[in-house]
Write a structure and sequence with these properties.
two-stranded antiparallel sheet; 3-stranded antiparallel β-sheet; 3 helices; Enolase-like, domain 1; alpha+beta; single chain; 99 residues
């Protein structure tokens, strides 16, 4: 089991990604912070989409791109901020080489 946690300081908020990987797949993921996203339950939908996914940057990046292209409203952070937080969390878990 591998665990990666990363806190990314966005323009006006903090994004914290905690990811647990078992058997090469994302076993659990949590996205918290002081950012605004609407609809509010969309973070739970993102977490749900990621659970059970192959634990690779390519797979996670693809899900993030699809997620943020669905017309969500963000304040204080950008989709790129979330991508940085996820990539660094995967890096902390030892699955992605430092960029």
């Amino acid at each position: 089991m591998r665990i990666g946690v990363y806190e990314h300081k966005a323009r006006k908020g903090l994004i914290r990604v905690s990811i647990r990987i078992a058997g090469g797949v994302i076993d659990d993921v949590s996205v918290t912070g002081d950012f605004f996203i609407y609809p509010e339950d969309s973070v739970f939908q993102l977490e749900s989409r990621l659970k059970g996914l192959e634990a690779s940057w390519e797979a996670v990046s693809r899900v993030l791109d699809e997620f943020f292209s669905s017309g969500l409203e963000l304040a204080g952070a950008t989709p790129e901020d979330f991508k940085i937080a996820f990539r660094k969390a995967l890096e902390e878990a030892g699955l992605v080489e430092g960029a």
